[in-house]
Amino acid sequence: MSMETYRLEIREMETGGGIDADVYGEDDLIEASTQIAYEDYDLESPSAGRPSPIVREVTADVTTIDLQFERDDAGFVFRVLGDRDDLATERLEDEEWGLE
């Protein structure tokens, strides 16, 4: 395997009902994906418009890619895993995104 660049994108769903998180490979195909519905966490869509997406790139020599998330009292943490190792971590704060 050789080094490849992956791009994590976290953004609000087009419908405004939650969060889309995708990991893209160098060919712009989705390697891993997850969706979070605001209602599953008793949250409401931001009232001040659509928040800016979070975009992060990471380069790694891996055979598998996975995307996981956790919820705590103040936000979500997204982790990109390559061969089960943590490659990138991004935190989405409720307050910054205007989630209530």
Defining key terms:
mainly beta; 1 helix; 4% helix; 100 residues; three-stranded antiparallel β-sheet; Halobacterial output domain-containing protein
Describe what is shown at a glance.
The chain has 100 residues and is mainly beta. It has one helix and seven strands.
What do you see in this structure?
- The protein is mainly β and 100 residues long.
- Helices cover 4% and strands 56% of the residues.
- It contains one helix and seven strands; from the N terminus they run βββββββα.
- The chain has one helix at 94-97; strands at 4-12, 18-24, 30-37, 54-60, 65-72, 75-82, 85-93.
- It starts with a strand and ends with a helix.
- The relative contact order is 0.26.
- This is Halobacterial output domain-containing protein.
- It comes from Natribaculum luteum.
> Over the alpha carbons, how many angstroms does the gyration radius reach?
14 Å
Largest sheet: 4 strands, antiparallel
What structural class should be given to the helix and strand makeup? mainly beta
Rounded to the nearest angstrom, the distance between the terminal CA atoms is: 44 Å
Helix segment tally: 1
Could you estimate the helical fraction of the residues in percent? under 10%
From N to C, what is the helix and strand string? Answer: EEEEEEEH
Reading side by side through the largest sheet, how are the strands ordered?
3-2-1-4
Which stretches of 5+ consecutive residues score pLDDT under 50? none
Shape: elongated
Strand content: over 45%
Mean pLDDT: 94
Number of strands: 7
